[in-house]
């Protein structure tokens, strides 16, 4: 698979990562997402990583970069479905994912994206 599908739901984009991420796929996703945010004027991006068992430091940094790029383009990013082992790995690697909003599942993530800007 060379690309991860990006679904549009109104003014939100939904990305469900169902395959193990490798570096090139992460870079392609970053490019595809920024392009889609620009073309659709999306105000929110939900990234579901519940199928990922492993996230290395590069993928962790890419998630942070995607969130920062979206923020610059006036879109909020929420990462959902993080497995406990993935969270532990990110902490052990020293990645704080500053600015990345998280939620337990897709439903909670969608609720976060529906909040007006600035609300917790």
From TrEMBL:
Residue ranges constituting the STAS domain according to the UniProt record: 2-113
Lineage, broadest ranks: Bacteria, Pseudomonadati, Pseudomonadota, Gammaproteobacteria, Lysobacterales
Pfam family name, one: STAS
Name of the molecule in the record: STAS domain-containing protein
Domain of life of the native organism: Bacteria
SUPFAM superfamilies referenced in this protein's UniProt entry, alphabetically: SpoIIaa-like
């Amino acid at each position: 698979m060379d690309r991860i599908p990006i679904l549009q739901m109104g003014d939100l984009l939904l990305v469900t990562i169902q395959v193990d991420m490798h570096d090139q796929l992460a870079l392609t996703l970053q490019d595809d997402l920024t392009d889609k945010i620009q073309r659709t004027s999306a105000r929110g991006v939900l990234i579901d990583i519940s199928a990922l068992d492993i996230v290395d430091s590069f993928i962790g940094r890419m998630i942070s970069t995607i969130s920062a790029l979206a923020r610059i383009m006036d879109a909020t990013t929420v990462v959902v479905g993080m497995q406990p082992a993935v969270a532990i790995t990110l902490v052990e690697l020293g990645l704080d994912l500053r600015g990345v909003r998280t939620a337990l599942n897709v439903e909670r993530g969608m609720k976060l994206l529906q909040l007006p800007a600035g609300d917790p």
